[in-house]
């Protein structure tokens, strides 16, 4: 898989839109009630029973004070408060089960936490600060490990051993002060207070120390998803990769898109874009079949190239059983799986399952689109939008439903959405199928070979394949790609074949 | 054969560290071997290390306990333990701080505890360390999906135990996770009295319905059944070695004793006092109901006791007897008297003397025995 931080699933015209979450602007003297959600504790735990609350409603609590204890199968987990504030309401009682991502309790927090978030909204220019905005989607608190908005990668400067409330951390970051230098502070339990930071600053200019990061090495731990990527990539070293790249001509597909856009089925359109009904009612005699409208995150108004590329890929996969196959996993998941003596086999599926590389604020995932050959291009576009929406949630809302153990037989990585890349060398991981393709960014070029030798302006996109050479031959991959090209460059075939 | 050795001796080519007992013990070592067999000390020591050791350093603790039953943080002792058998054996039971199910400890069982930073904690990886240690002793064990270590799928085991249908477990695990640290601790059955284990953990209360975590009962066996030379020392050594290899540690193990150096620490003293207290041992029990029936000469009586945090919330009687109003009145008084009392700790003096006589005397005797079993 390619390293890609930001959530991008739209191919074609990926204007770098900033995903900027702003909070309700806070007035200077108001208190805000924050919902503290049960964060992803790791270990694949999806729900826990609340055993004991250490606080009662209307009790005050400080950041890092014990909040509650939860239990999941064999693990007992202690959760501390991420905020200073007053506990307003316990949303899950002792003995009840809370799901990851559900609210545990409501805490009323001090005004300056909310104020800081409003400041951040105006201070940072949108475009290049996109990275920053993902680090603190709601307000600017961070560092509490079980804070639902916590991203371990973001905690690079302030070491987790330093105790400080979120507002102090924000202040120190604004001032460019490394909290590690100030520990221990003058507050409770060695906590660093705002006055410690101010005192340091007053000394700092005299001492001539650099204000901004002072160039020391910092050691950062890998978060769970990134470490998962590490482990998967180490396993991928077992796979002998070979690459193959070419460009596909998207001009014909591009020409189709406006027409396809005007005919997006109503149940996939957002309510605001619903077309006016026909003047004569088709359902007068008998109700015409109307599919259920999909939830709003899955609605869209424009098609992109990706669903069309996926559909044509599934057509090619239909003709090529090799690319609908996966290596049969060995039965025992024991330590020495590499020593299993039986000859490897390939399991061929009747339908095309394609995994999509999804880069989200919480990390890199590969959800799978099942049975792509059975879905229409419109339906695929809706599914992609839905996956993107789930991936964007923090904690990640992708479930084993979207990421089944059995994965797809091919993986698609739409790297062109991130930058103007043309070609890449994607990496296959075990469980990712027999091949992976990275799709670059489409661009208009002058093609001297087309237009009867006079040359023509054509829309081309680079596609780079990596395949598992234990099961796929180079010539097979090349021929398969040509089969795919024959669909992409003549999409009208889909009409005759009955999409 | 183990003889008591001063900790500064060299043992099997390994040097150990220890401090003179006048200095307080430090939480900064990487590997600890506890020579104490006091379960209250060992569990508290483990908790102290968990809260006070450097958050980024992996840590290993190995210990053994005198015979006792250890239940999980959120379990119901009455459901898990056969108290009649426990009292007969004269062993205590202790509620530990991590989750999971009930286990039996004795000197033939070695406990290991691996502490890691929360973000790099992985159940499977820590289970692998112990598995590697067991395998290095020549035993063909493997890990199941719940990360328990078991033996028993290949031919070798069927020779020893031809009646084995499936996996036998040699180890059980539990976990605890806090802000920035997590641990995996577990048991390893080396030469445990399996008959005692069976007796004490045999549940005799099917009609007790409890919230909280239920134990998953599994067939167990000892490592010594597969390799008679295995001992606590050999296993400890193997785990220490596997741990050192996994985390690239070349520190020697540190010997911990239950001495001044440890008990002078307030956290440890207070923890050791908290574990046997009623509030912790019984007062942490989640809600449960217990429904029992008995046939008396005058009719059948059914009782349903509801309890939470070890206190009786309500006790409702019903019977199909010939309707003597005095019985009805007495059971009404009995149920009122029981409300608010500690389940299993109600003595005769707490119940109105009148209720202990007459027909009620039978009923109360029966209830009392049921609560204490």
From TrEMBL, chain A:
Keywords: Acyltransferase, Lipoyl, Mitochondrion, Transferase, Transit peptide
A cellular component annotation (GO) from this entry: mitochondrial matrix
Lipoyl-binding domain mapped to chain residues: 33-108
PROSITE patterns named in the record: BIOTINYL_LIPOYL, PSBD
Span of domain Peripheral subunit-binding (PSBD): 163-201
Domain of life: Eukaryota
EC class: transferase
GO MF annotation list: acetyltransferase activity; lipoic acid binding
Subcellular location: Mitochondrion matrix
Cofactor: (R)-lipoate
Region described as Disordered: spans on this chain: 116-158
GO terms classed as biological process: cellular respiration
EC number: 2.3.1.-
Membership in a protein family: Belongs to the 2-oxoacid dehydrogenase family.
Protein name as annotated: Dihydrolipoamide acetyltransferase component of pyruvate dehydrogenase complex
Species whose genome carries this gene: Piloderma croceum (strain F 1598)
UniProtKB/TrEMBL annotation, chain B:
Pfam family, one: LplA-B_cat
Catalysed reaction equations from the record: L-lysyl-[lipoyl-carrier protein] + (R)-lipoate + ATP = N(6)-[(R)-lipoyl]-L-lysyl-[lipoyl-carrier protein] + AMP + diphosphate + H(+)
Keywords associated with the record: ATP-binding, Ligase, Nucleotide-binding
Name this polypeptide is given: Putative lipoate-protein ligase A
First-level EC class: ligase
Biological processes, Gene Ontology terms: protein lipoylation
InterPro entries linked: aa-tRNA-synth_II/BPL/LPL, BPL_LPL_catalytic, Lipoate_protein_ligase_C, LipoylTrfase_LipoateP_Ligase
Keyword Isomerase: no
Enzyme Commission (EC) number: 6.3.1.20
Lineage: superkingdom: Eukaryota
Stated family: Belongs to the LplA family.
Pathway(s) this gene product operates in, as recorded in its UniProt entry: Protein modification; protein lipoylation via exogenous pathway; protein N(6)-(lipoyl)lysine from lipoate: step 2/2; Protein modification; protein lipoylation via exogenous pathway; protein N(6)-(lipoyl)lysine from lipoate: step 1/2
Domain BPL/LPL catalytic: 54-251
One GO MF term: lipoyltransferase activity
PROSITE patterns for this protein: BPL_LPL_CATALYTIC
Signal peptide segment: none
Function field: Catalyzes both the ATP-dependent activation of exogenously supplied lipoate to lipoyl-AMP and the transfer of the activated lipoyl onto the lipoyl domains of lipoate-dependent enzymes.
UniProt source species: Piloderma croceum (strain F 1598)
One annotated Gene Ontology cellular component of this protein: mitochondrion
Keyword Signal: no
């Amino acid at each position: 898989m390619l390293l890609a931080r930001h959530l991008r699933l739209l191919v074609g015209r990926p204007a770098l839109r900033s995903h900027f979450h702003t909070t309700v602007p806070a007035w200077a003297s108001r208190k805000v009630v924050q919902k503290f959600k049960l964060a992803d504790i790791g270990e694949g735990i999806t729900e826990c029973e609340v055993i004991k609350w250490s606080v009662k409603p209307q009790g005050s609590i400080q950041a890092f004070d014990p909040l509650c204890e939860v239990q999941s199968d064999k693990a007992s987990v202690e959760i501390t408060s991420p905020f200073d504030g007053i506990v307003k309401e316990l949303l899950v009682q002792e003995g009840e089960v809370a799901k990851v991502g559900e609210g545990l309790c409501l805490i009323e927090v001090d005004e300056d936490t909310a104020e800081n978030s409003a400041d951040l909204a105006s201070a940072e220019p949108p475009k290049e600060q996109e990275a920053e905005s993902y680090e603190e989607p709601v307000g600017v608190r961070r560092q509490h490990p079980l804070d639902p908005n916590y991203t371990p990668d973001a905690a690079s400067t302030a070491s987790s051993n330093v105790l400080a409330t979120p507002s102090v951390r924000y202040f120190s970051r604004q001032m460019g002060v490394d909290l590690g230098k100030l520990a221990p502070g003058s507050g409770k339990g060695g906590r660093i207070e705002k006055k410690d930071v101010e005192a340091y600053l007053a000394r700092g200019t005299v001492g001539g120390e650099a204000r901004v990061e002072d160039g020391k090495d910092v050691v950062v731990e890998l978060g769970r998803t990134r470490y998962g990527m590490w482990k998967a990539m180490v396993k991928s070293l077992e796979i002998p990769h070979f690459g193959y790249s070419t460009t596909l001509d998207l001009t014909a597909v591009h020409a189709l898109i406006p027409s396809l856009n005007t005919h997006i089925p109503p149940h996939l359109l957002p309510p605001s874009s619903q077309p006016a009904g026909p003047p004569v009612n088709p359902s007068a005699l008998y109700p015409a079949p109307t599919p259920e409208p999909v939830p709003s995150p899955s609605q869209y108004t424009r098609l992109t190239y990706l669903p069309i590329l996926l559909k044509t890929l599934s057509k090619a996969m239909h003709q090529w059983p090799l690319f609908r196959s996966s290596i049969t996993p060995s039965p025992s998941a024991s330590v020495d799986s590499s020593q299993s003596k039986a000859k490897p086999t390939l399991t061929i599926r009747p339908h095309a399952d394609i995994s999509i590389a999804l880069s989200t604020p919480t990390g890199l995932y590969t959800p799978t689109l099942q049975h792509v050959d059975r879905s229409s291009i419109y339906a695929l576009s809706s599914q992609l939008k839905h996956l993107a929406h789930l991936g964007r949630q923090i904690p990640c809302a992708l479930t084993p439903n979207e990421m089944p153990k059995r994965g797809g037989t091919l993986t698609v990585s739409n790297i062109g959405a991130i930058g103007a890349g043309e070609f890449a060398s994607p990496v296959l991981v075990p469980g990712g199928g027999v091949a992976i393709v990275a799709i670059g960014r489409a661009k208009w070029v002058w093609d001297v070979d087309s237009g009867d030798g006079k040359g023509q302006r054509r829309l081309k996109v680079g596609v780079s394949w990596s395949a598992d050479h234990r099961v796929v031959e180079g010539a097979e991959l090349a021929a398969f790609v040509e089969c795919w090209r024959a669909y992409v460059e003549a999409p009208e075939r889909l009409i005759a074949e009955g999409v | 054969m183990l003889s008591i050795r001063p900790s500064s001796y060299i043992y099997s080519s390994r040097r150990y560290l220890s401090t003179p007992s006048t200095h307080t013990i430090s939480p900064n070592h990487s590997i600890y071997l506890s020579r104490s067999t006091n379960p209250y000390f060992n569990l508290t020591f483990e908790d102290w290390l968990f809260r006070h050791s450097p958050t980024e350093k992996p840590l290993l603790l190995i210990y053994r306990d005198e015979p006792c039953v250890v239940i999980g943080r959120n379990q119901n002792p009455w459901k898990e333990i056969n108290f009649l058998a426990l009292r007969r054996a004269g062993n205590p039971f202790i509620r530990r701080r991590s989750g999971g199910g009930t286990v039996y400890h004795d000197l033939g069982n070695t406990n290991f505890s691996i502490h890691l930073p929360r973000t790099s904690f992985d159940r499977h990886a820590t289970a692998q360390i112990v598995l590697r240690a067991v395998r290095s002793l020549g035993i063909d064990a493997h890990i199941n999906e719940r990360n328990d270590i078991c033996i028993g799928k290949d031919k070798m085991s069927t020779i020893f135990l031809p009646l084995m249908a499936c996996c036998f477990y040699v180890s059980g695990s539990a976990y605890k996770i806090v802000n920035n640290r997590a641990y995996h601790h577990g048991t390893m059955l080396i030469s445990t009295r399996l008959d005692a284990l069976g007796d004490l953990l045999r549940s005799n209360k099917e009609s007790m319905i409890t919230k909280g975590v239920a134990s998953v009962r599994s067939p167990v066996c000892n490592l010594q059944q597969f390799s008679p030379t295995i001992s606590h020392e050999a296993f400890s050594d193997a785990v220490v070695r596997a741990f050192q290899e996994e985390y690239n540690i070349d520190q020697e193990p540190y010997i911990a004793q239950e001495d001044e150096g440890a008990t002078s620490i307030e956290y440890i003293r207070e923890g050791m006092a908290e574990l046997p207290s009623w509030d912790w041992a019984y007062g942490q029990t989640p809600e449960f109901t217990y429904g029992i029936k008995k046939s008396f000469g005058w009719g059948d009586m059914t009782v349903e006791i509801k309890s939470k945090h070890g206190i009786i919330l309500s006790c409702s009687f019903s019977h199909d007897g010939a309707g003597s109003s005095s019985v009805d009145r007495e059971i009404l008084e009995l149920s009122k008297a029981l409300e608010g009392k500690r389940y299993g700790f109600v003595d005769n003096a707490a119940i109105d003397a009148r209720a202990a006589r007459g027909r009620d005397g039978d009923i109360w005797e029966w209830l009392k025995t049921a609560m204490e079993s």
